[in-house]
């Protein structure tokens, strides 16, 4: 059987500030008819550029330097890079279709869902108005949207992210294309939704016999869904082969490192519960309402946190897990003293957090590290100024430092603590990578020696290898300094690696709380089970994990 | 660089030798530098008297001796344009300063305090915006009287609202940023955070607006001069110069055309430099 | 409270505040309007005569009484009396308005055509140099003094080429050059905003998605870009209204046309405060009404705003 898609020595360059930079350096790939090829890589690996080259939509300044993209069509083979623009336009949407990354911005906001799905049919003059209308309703039903007639009349902002992605998939399959390019189709979605969307894509592929090029940063998604995997790094192919082979016997060191760092693919067991001490952090019956005051009166009132309680032992990590809208960030910010919840109590040791809001004692007890390392550093101040600032804020005699030399010494020590070279102090944030910035944010939080650190999705915006390094750093600092973490995340795979205890949140309520081992290996609540099930992993790894669960639970029996 | 519709069209081979954007910037800076030199040391650029004319030389077309020609009373037009630069540029500077100082003060105060103070200040700004700019400056002129400085202040008043709005929105944007939250979170006081983070990160855009307002202030001041509310004759002022020569449109084309071209060139250059300033701070 | 009611309430509040501000500003003159107008030595009026004039115009009353009387007058359509001619201000405005309306509405229509043409050419034409050329037009238009443009047009079109007569022109001929003059300062900001919002829309991911469905440039412009670019453009309608007023003042002065602009220019020259105050307040009402209309129409263009309307 000949391949549907053959990429042959493809090289792509961009014009950036009057010079050309090559971002794809001669990549060759093959995708068989009816199969799924996953293109895996971290940011800057060129995976999206390859997808754009196939569909003929490189952004302005992009140019194919050499190589070919051959598509085996019913009428004979074509080289997409050599095709006249008009001929390419006729192929797009009909033979080659795109499922985009972010369903939030990929639908025209002033067009109804029905019109958006009908667009490829109208563009390619598929049939009469009435036939198109019926086809749109069929498609919406096929992708699992309830009440298609009503959905077709709605606008994108009235639909959830998952529903929007279904509509985009409906438009992509409208003309039964031979090739579907799915560019990070689920990265903007919650894990449980991600699973359902990937299932839908798999069903449709089987039904239509289309091939799928799945572009993803997530090796676990690739491992679970692809027949073949191609690993890219800095525009070069690191590895290309059958999924099973690539995952089990990686040929390149880079793939091996990626595998080791991907939390979802790790078969390490969760942390064993440590000796329970007096809890350091106690959150009790926390409630928070957004919108109008006086809970539940107005139509826009919304209970973000509903009667949540938890305890964290000193020197341990408690993970707060949930999807978007679960209230996890609200709880973290309340603990860090950034806003006052509607009711409830929060204590750190003897300190009443809600009474001390804004006080120096609270600042010295708890610090927050937020998700986006690009937004959390002042772009105009050097790293040294940023890290040293908390010391300048504290009064002299209470940990404050004014002496310049002393300040520089403390900054240097803080940089060393987070494994950054001392000369970083003179740099500006824009000169650092995302991982380095997050180290700076951590150093700033730690310089006033807090007892508790709230980490709000602190590793979510980072590539897996960087993520793994930051997690390692956090673990080391916890060991050395006896820090207590509240670790807020949507990613259960990360929880497996770092947490001692876990609370699972859903729509503001704690559905399950317990030790990491108990929650991750024998969840009681069905939502936790669904979350765990949604973490992508190939079947053989699941099997391995089940075996390991059996071992650990018997191990515990022996101890008991 | 933003995409354009045209980028969707068939690509042609990239053109070499398209105008270098830096070249127009250099040209603009040169034009402004000359205008500034005219304003500071006009006598270095012309030996002619801008006020006293030679009646015999009246209404002469441009020549080597009078590059811009002469007006109805025989004054050298180029000399009047050169000596007029001082009035126009100083006026524009005053106007921008008035808008910048008053507007930014209002905006920063509103944005950093919030609550009732913000609400009250921004309603005042709404009112200032509701009166069309020219009418607002005319009202101020009626209040203050005619004259170069008063016209400049009147033009400045019209830009207070724009500066206030921008300054407020910038302050609010920076205040919501993660790094300001982190600064408060590490125990920073309101004033320390304002000084260290909010002002430095807000004022870049405000200064870029000031640069942009400079060109528009030159235009507005010349408009007031043209309407006769600025400098009294025979002061050389660019707007007044053009107004005085209206009676000769049929016979002496140079009297209106050349000073107008100078104004347009200076304004265009000021806007070009402002665009570069904005690009640099954004 | 429904959005439309709340928004209208805000608009009324701004108008009231503007009225008070305009009144206070123009009555904050040293002495008062009567002194400013009549106290010059060459009129040779005695103090007693001035006092009499004050009483006639009501200027001897406390300022808040005057404010109240003036406000009551505005509400009943009595805009006061011109200090210069003694005529009713509402009569002066009523005579001046039709000519200015004709000039402004024609000028605005030409400006819209010009701006849309420039914006489409600047984003849509095939050759890059052509796009660049059209992109450089709005900054150029912004930098040209309007009064100078009018004079140069007069000079070139009427005197050099003799295309439009200056003397004995019929009403249509008399409008050609003023309309062109006033259109340029309106078209410039409009084209700038249009180009920017088209650029912004084209950079949106949903445009790339539409292209991936095989959409042609024509489809993109008509089906995807046009409506999304309209809203940011509408938001500057109020600013354009201000430009129209300023344009009318200058254009009518240059071409010696009667109208509101000319009336304004004369009122300032003679410090005729009741006339100026009436024009300022009426313009502010126009500005606020236009912005109100834009805010109320916007939900029809962008469905995302409809939620806010019903909330």
TrEMBL record, chain A:
BP term (GO), one: peptide transport
UniProt xrefs under CDD domains: ABC_NikE_OppD_transporters
InterPro entries listed in its UniProt record: AAA+_ATPase, ABC_transp_ATP-bind, ABC_transporter-like_ATP-bd, ABC_transporter-like_CS, Oligopep_ABC_C, P-loop_NTPase
Gene3D superfamilies tied to this protein: P-loop containing nucleotide triphosphate hydrolases (3.40.50.300)
SMART domains in alphabetical order: AAA (SM00382)
Keywords assigned by UniProt, alphabetized: ATP-binding, Nucleotide-binding, Transport
Occurrences of domain ABC transporter (ranges): 5-259, 285-532
Pfam families, per the entry: ABC_tran (PF00005), oligo_HPY (PF08352)
Example of a GO MF term: ATP binding
Superkingdom assignment: Bacteria
Coiled-coil portions: none
Family: Belongs to the ABC transporter superfamily.
Protein name: ABC transporter ATP-binding protein
From TrEMBL, chain B:
Pfam family, one: BPD_transp_1
Domain ABC transmembrane type-1: 85-274
Domain of life: Bacteria
Membrane topology: Multi-pass membrane protein
Assigned GO CC terms: plasma membrane
Transmembrane segments: 25-45, 89-112, 124-145, 151-167, 205-231, 251-270
One Gene Ontology biological process: transmembrane transport
PROSITE patterns cross-referenced by the UniProt entry: ABC_TM1
InterPro entries: BP-dependent_transpt_permease (IPR050366), MetI-like (IPR000515), MetI-like_sf (IPR035906)
Keywords of the record: Cell membrane, Membrane, Transmembrane, Transmembrane helix, Transport
Compartments, record wording: Cell membrane
Family per similarity comment: Belongs to the binding-protein-dependent transport system permease family.
Record's protein name: Peptide ABC transporter permease
Automatic annotation (TrEMBL), chain C:
Pfam families xref list: BPD_transp_1, BPD_transp_1_N
Residue spans crossing the bilayer: 12-29, 101-127, 139-163, 175-195, 230-255, 275-298
Subcellular location: Cell membrane
InterPro entries tied to this protein: BPD_transp_1_N, MetI-like, MetI-like_sf
Matches recorded under Gene3D superfamilies: MetI-like
Its membrane topology: Multi-pass membrane protein
Residues covered by the ABC transmembrane type-1 domain: 97-298
Key word Iron-sulfur present: no
GO BP: transmembrane transport
UniProt key word Transmembrane helix: yes
One GO term describing the cellular component: plasma membrane
UniProt keyword terms in alphabetical order: Cell membrane, Membrane, Transmembrane, Transmembrane helix, Transport
Family per similarity comment: Belongs to the binding-protein-dependent transport system permease family.
Name recorded for this polypeptide: Peptide ABC transporter permease
Organism: Agrococcus baldri
């Amino acid at each position: 059987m000949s391949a549907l898609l053959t990429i042959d020595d493809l090289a792509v360059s961009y014009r950036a500030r009057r010079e050309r930079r090559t971002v794809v350096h001669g990549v060759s790939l093959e995708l068989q008819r009816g199969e799924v090829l996953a293109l895996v890589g971290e940011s800057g690996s060129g995976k999206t550029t390859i997808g754009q080259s196939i569909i003929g939509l490189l952004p302005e300044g992009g140019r194919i330097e050499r190589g070919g993209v051959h598509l085996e069509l019913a009428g004979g083979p074509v080289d997409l890079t050599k095709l006249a623009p008009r001929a390419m336009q006729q192929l797009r949407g009909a033979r080659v279709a795109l499922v985009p990354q972010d369903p939030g911005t990929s639908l025209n906001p002033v067009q109804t869902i029905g019109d958006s799905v009908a667009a490829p049919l109208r563009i390619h003059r598929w049939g009469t108005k009435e036939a198109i209308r019926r086809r749109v309703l069929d498609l919406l039903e096929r992708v699992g949207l309830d009440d298609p007639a009503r959905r077709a009349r709605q606008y994108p902002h009235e639909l959830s992210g998952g529903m929007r992605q279904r509509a985009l998939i409906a438009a992509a399959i409208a003309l039964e294309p031979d090739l579907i390019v799915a560019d990070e189709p689920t990265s903007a979605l919650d894990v449980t939704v991600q699973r359902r969307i990937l299932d839908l894509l798999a069903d449709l592929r089987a039904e239509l016999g289309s091939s799928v090029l799945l572009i993803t940063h997530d090796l676990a998604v690739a491992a679970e869904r692809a027949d073949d995997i191609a690993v890219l790094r800095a525009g070069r192919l690191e590895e290309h082969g059958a999924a099973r082979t690539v995952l089990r016997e990686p040929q390149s060191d880079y793939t091996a490192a990626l595998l080791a760092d991907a939390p979802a693919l790790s078969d390490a067991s969760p942390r064993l519960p440590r000796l329970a001490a007096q809890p350091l952090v106690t959150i009790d019956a926390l409630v928070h309402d957004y919108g109008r005051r006086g809970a539940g009166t107005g139509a826009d009132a919304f209970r973000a946190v509903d009667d949540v309680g938890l305890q964290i032992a000193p020197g341990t990590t408690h993970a707060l897990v949930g999807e978007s809208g679960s209230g996890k960030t609200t709880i973290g910010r309340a603990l860090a003293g950034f806003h006052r919840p509607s009711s409830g109590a929060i204590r750190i040791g003897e300190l009443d957090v809600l009474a001390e809001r804004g006080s120096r004692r609270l600042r010295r007890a708890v610090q927050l590290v937020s998700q986006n390392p690009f937004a959390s550093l002042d772009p105009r101040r050097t790293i040294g100024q940023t890290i040293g600032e908390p010391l300048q804020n504290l009064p002299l005699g209470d940990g404050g430092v004014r002496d310049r030399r002393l300040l520089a010494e403390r900054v240097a020590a803080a940089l060393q603590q987070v494994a950054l070279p001392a000369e970083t102090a003179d740099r500006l944030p824009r000169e650092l990578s995302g991982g380095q910035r997050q180290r700076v944010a951590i150093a700033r939080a730690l310089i006033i020696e807090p007892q508790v650190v709230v980490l709000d999705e602190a590793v979510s915006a980072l590539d897996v290898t960087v993520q793994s390094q930051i997690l390692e750093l956090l673990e080391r600092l916890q060991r050395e300094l006896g820090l207590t973490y509240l670790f807020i995340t949507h990613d259960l795979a990360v929880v497996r690696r770092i947490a001692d205890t876990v609370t699972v949140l859903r729509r503001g309520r704690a559905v399950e709380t317990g030790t990491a081992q108990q929650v991750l290996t024998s969840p009681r609540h069905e939502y936790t089970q669904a979350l765990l099930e949604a973490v992508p992993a190939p079947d053989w790894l699941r099997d391995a994990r089940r075996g390991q669960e059996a071992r650990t639970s018997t191990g515990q029996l022996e101890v008991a | 660089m933003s995409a354009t519709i045209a980028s969707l069209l068939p690509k042609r081979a990239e053109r070499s030798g398209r105008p270098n954007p830096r070249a127009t910037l250099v040209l603009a800076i040169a034009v402004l530098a000359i205008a500034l030199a005219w304003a500071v040391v006009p006598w270095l650029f012309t030996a002619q008297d801008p006020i006293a004319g030679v009646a015999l030389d009246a209404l002469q077309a441009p020549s080597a001796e009078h590059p811009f020609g002469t007006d109805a009373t025989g004054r050298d037009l180029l000399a009047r344009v050169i000596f007029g630069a001082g009035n126009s540029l100083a006026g524009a500077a005053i106007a921008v300063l008035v808008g910048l100082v008053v507007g930014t003060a209002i905006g920063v105060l509103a944005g950093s305090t919030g609550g009732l103070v913000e609400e009250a200040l921004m309603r005042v700004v709404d009112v200032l915006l509701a009166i069309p700019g020219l009418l607002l400056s005319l009202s101020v002129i009626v209040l203050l009287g005619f004259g170069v400085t008063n016209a400049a202040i009147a033009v400045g008043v019209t830009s207070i609202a724009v500066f206030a709005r921008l300054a407020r929105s910038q302050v609010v944007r920076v205040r919501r940023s993660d790094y300001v939250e982190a600064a408060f979170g590490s125990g920073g006081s309101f004033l320390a955070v304002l000084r260290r983070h909010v002002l430095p990160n807000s004022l870049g855009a405000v200064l870029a607006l000031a640069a942009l307002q400079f060109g528009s202030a030159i235009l507005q001041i010349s408009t007031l001069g043209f309407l006769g509310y600025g400098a009294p004759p025979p002061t050389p002022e660019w707007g007044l110069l053009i107004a005085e020569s209206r009676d000769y449109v049929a016979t002496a084309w140079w009297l209106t055309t050349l000073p107008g071209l100078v104004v347009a060139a200076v304004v265009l250059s000021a806007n070009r430099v402002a665009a570069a300033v904005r690009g640099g701070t954004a | 409270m429904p959005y439309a009611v709340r928004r209208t309430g805000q608009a009324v509040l701004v108008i009231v505040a503007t009225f008070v501000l305009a009144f206070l500003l123009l009555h904050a003159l040293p002495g008062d309007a009567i002194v400013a107008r009549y106290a010059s030595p060459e009129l040779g009026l005695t103090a007693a005569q001035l006092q009499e004039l004050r009483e006639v115009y009501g200027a001897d009353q406390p300022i808040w009484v005057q404010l109240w009387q003036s406000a009551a007058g505005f509400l009943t359509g009595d805009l006061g009396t011109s200090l210069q001619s003694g005529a009713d201000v509402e009569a002066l405005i009523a005579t001046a308005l039709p000519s200015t309306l004709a000039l402004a509405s024609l000028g605005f229509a030409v400006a819209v055509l010009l701006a849309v043409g420039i914006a489409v050419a600047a984003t849509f034409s095939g050759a890059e140099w052509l796009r660049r050329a059209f992109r450089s037009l709005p900054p150029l238009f912004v930098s040209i003094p309007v009064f100078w443009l009018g004079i140069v047009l007069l000079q070139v079109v009427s005197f050099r080429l003799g295309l439009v007569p200056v003397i004995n022109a019929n009403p249509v001929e008399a409008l050609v050059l003023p309309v062109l003059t006033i259109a340029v300062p309106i078209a410039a900001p409009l084209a700038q905003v249009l180009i920017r919002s088209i650029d912004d829309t084209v950079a949106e991911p949903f445009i790339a998605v539409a292209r991936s469905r095989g959409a042609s440039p024509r489809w993109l412009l008509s089906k995807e870009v046009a409506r999304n670019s309209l809203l940011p453009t509408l938001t500057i309608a109020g600013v354009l209204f201000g430009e129209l007023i300023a344009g009318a003042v200058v254009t009518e002065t240059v071409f010696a046309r009667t109208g509101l602009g000319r009336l304004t220019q004369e009122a300032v020259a003679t410090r005729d405060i009741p006339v100026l105050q009436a024009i300022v307040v009426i313009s502010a009402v126009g500005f606020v009404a236009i912005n109100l209309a834009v805010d109320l129409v916007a939900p029809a263009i962008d469905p995302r705003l409809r939620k806010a309307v019903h909330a």
